[in-house]
Predict the structure.
Amino acid sequence: MKIHDAFFGFFFLALGALVLFAIRGYPNIPGQPVGPALFPGLIAIGLCITGTLMVIKGLRNREPTAWFAWEDWIDSPRHVVALCVLLACVVFYIVAANELGFLPTGFLMLVALFKALQVKWGRALLVALIATLVIHFAFYKLLRVPLPWGILTPWAW
């Protein structure tokens, strides 16, 4: 879906202003040159600047364009199915990850996504297995993110 730049610009500008309003009451840390409001404030300022530039660009555009317009892929059943599978995978992860664990859930999600994108079975299974293991290693071992083990709890490492 193509959304007019001015619309997104107003959204980013409002979001940045909302963040700036929310962080104004953050306390300062004694003896520290920066406080907890620094990074959210910088991001909010960036959102406001970006939003302003997008509004200006959208309003300067003299060609009449719709505020909302569907992209061409929406007429392709294959692409619509892939989008539905993607959204179903997100819901599946939310519902099943704690019971099944990250490894089986991630593997099943990747296989479903690869099949929705018409990847052959052998390649889909192999890449899904390798990618799941690499993602698990990166998040669980390197970044120390506590991923759920689920049914694999007896074999947790």
